[in-house]
Amino acid sequence: MPLDLRATLRPLGGRFLDDGWWTAVRTPQGPGTLRVRRTADGVEGTAWGPGADWLLGRLPLWVGLADPVEEFETEHPVVAPLARRHRGYRYGATGLVFEALIRAIVEQKVSGKEAAHSLRALWQRFGDPAPGPAPLRLPPDSERLAASPYWEYHRLGLERRRADVLRAVARDAADIEALSGTESETVQRQLRRYPGVGVWTAAETVAVSHGDPDAVSVGDYHHKNIVAWHLAGRPRGTDDQMLELLEPFRPHRGRVVRLLARAGWAPRFGPRMPIRSITDR
User: Fold this and answer.
1) Predicted TM-score (pTM) of this structure
2) Are residues 56 and 120 in the same domain?
3) Pair 102, 200 in one domain
4) Which residues contact 24 (CB under 8 A, 6 or more apart)?
5) Which of 29, 110, 205, 229 lies in disulfide reach of 54, CB 3.0 to 4.6 Å?
6) Domain carrying residue 40
7) Are 243 and 119 contacting, i.e. CB atoms less than 8 angstroms apart?
8) 107 and 204 fall within a common domain
9) In a domain, 124, yes or no
């Protein structure tokens, strides 16, 4: 079974260190740290903390072994070669809806660099030291997220709109985490009930928590153009056009977007998304 471990794990967060990929999470059994690495026999997972057994029990899901990539068949002249070349690029599933939602909210409508800065700051301010030997931080504690005033978020690079969304979902963290056993489409509908959680955020969440290869991040700054360029030869497209072009690939539409992104960006012209700083406002 082909497995591109680095490409599969990268969307799930965590850090690649010299001795493998590391992540620290709050599992239903408590805090846990997981290290995943290649060995001569395949993939090895090592875990620390009260959540260690939960993490090791889900290791096959984290590395995408439950992803039905083998069922994806297409003869499309652009997509088919990409699918063959990247057969090991699988969808991992963390089973942790709340953490995936936090990440998606922070990443709303900002550059990747800005989102990465705010995520690190959020983990540092509201997280805790993780168990195990690596210097990792656990994800933000939901009670502290919900109770903190806006100005605490402001100095982390988060404007009031995203801060209010984070505080709202943090108040319902237990109910949101309970959605881990619910099918993806229902989870997305439930998440979109929160003001400030739209189609893009819900799709980004279940792509990570559920490993849903059909989740399409409608509203993404780049995806519609990538799809339009590779599938229709147009350097720019709309979300509606993107969905129309992706429809024949259901239930692997999100997978196709990822594959097309690996083939290259659409031609760039005009202004790019600026990197902002709000901490000195």
Assistant:
1) 0.92
2) no
3) yes
4) 31, 32, 33, 34, 130, 131, 132, 134, 136, 137, 138, 139
5) 29
6) 5-69
7) no
8) yes
9) yes
